[in-house]
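Quick start: what a row looks like.
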Amino acid sequence: MLVALLVAAAAVVAIDRVVVNRVEKPKSVEFEAEGARYVGLIRVSSRVFDRYQGHDVYIGDDPGLAYGHFEHVELNTGVALEIESVKWQADGVRVAFNSGHELFVPVRYREGR
């Protein structure tokens, strides 16, 4: 009985992370800060009932989007959220979404700082 309860509890708190899209910094773009070569959008949902729990925006050097800087956003827009554009600026990275929202992450919050 206890084992069944533990398994059920683990299933409730377990989450799925699905990469929606990933953008790589073009080689032509000069960006002083290291640790910001990729920007990705990851949809987070529960494994039980696939309940939406927001998105993680990733900024870092790992093409697998596993290690770096994450910002969690919950934009209940009614549209399937995707990255529309990314601008690597001198003072940070600006991410624009197809919903019209934007997220700016200053250089000082990049991976490794």
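That is the whole record. The radius of gyration is 16 Å. Strands lie at 15-24, 38-46, 52-60, 69-73, 83-89, 92-97, 102-106.
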